[in-house]
Amino acid sequence: MAQTVKVFISFDLEGVTIVSSWREMKKDAPSFGDIRKCGTEEVSAAIRGIHHASRGRCEIVVCDAHAMGENLIIDALPKGIHTVRGSPREFYMVEGIDESFDLLFCIGYHAMAGTLRAGMDHTYSSSLLYSVKINGVFVGETEINAGLAGHYGVPLGLVTGDDQLIKEVHKFFGDDLETVITKHGISRFSMMCRHPADVQAEIEKKAARAVENIDRYKPFTFKEPIQAEFEVTSSLIGDLVAPIPGIKRTSARTLSVTTKTILDFYRMMRLMCSTGSGQA
């Protein structure tokens, strides 16, 4: 591989192997330190795979994309990377991605809201959004973020998370995508977790394979203009977000909006979530 490979890693926490509930992920929970460590090790495994496949000719940006973006243990990650951290930020889970990148990796992700036997299933906000549709199709965070990356010509190469997420992404994107099942869902807050060492070894292997086969991936894009529909969790949330310019309220909990691009859709979704935050 003659040229430098540039990879954007978007990291969420629900899909990390040892996690089964949001209760474990609270900052004051005794388990949170172990979860941070395990998540950091899964991202590190992906970085090692990229380094191996590119023979060190790589640039890597990691976006800490869970909650306030304060989860990864930065000095435990391999040297030479850059990390997006903290909040607020315009494009949240993919802040910093642009046309200079060659691949998007989604590490520690989860299934979309309403998925049976999926760990902590939700789409961006479990307290505000019940479901999201783009152009009539239900989408989750992986699909939305891949669409935003695709706007810049960046394809999705690797996704890791529970078995229900992996079913979701293969159904949506096809079988060429590299994936790692980190655990198997029993219920929303119960999982059969794989051993972290086994998961990390597979992530490293699959990350390397994605880089080695980079030419087979094509950017995913949504047809524009975007026709979006949001089902919120209560009529109160509907009351709060309905006055936003461009929003059309079609029922107590259903709102729609048309945006020119996926970037505008993302901004609108973020605005809706910020407006309704704290009122759910």
Average pLDDT, rounded to a whole number, is: 96
Number of helices: 6
**What class do helices, strands and sheet pairing give?**
alpha/beta
What is the succession of H and E elements? EHEEEEEHEHEEEHEHEEH
Which strand order spans the largest sheet, edge to edge or round the barrel?
3-2-1-4-7-8
Give the full name of the CATH homologous superfamily of the domain at 5-112 and 152-216: Dipeptide transport protein
Strand content: 15-25%
Radius of gyration: 18 Å
Highest CATH level, the class of the domain at 5-112 and 152-216:
Alpha Beta
CATH topology description of the domain at 5-112 and 152-216: Rossmann fold
Report on this structure.
- It is globular, with a radius of gyration of 18 Å.
- Helix content is 30%, strand content 24%.
- The strands form three sheets. A six-stranded parallel beta sheet has the order 3-2-1-4-7-8, sandwiched between helices. The protein has a five-stranded antiparallel beta sheet with strand order 6-5-11-13-12. Strands 9-10 form a two-stranded antiparallel sheet.
- It has a domain at 5-112 and 152-216: Rossmann fold.
- It has 280 residues and is an alpha/beta fold.
- It starts with a strand and ends with a helix.
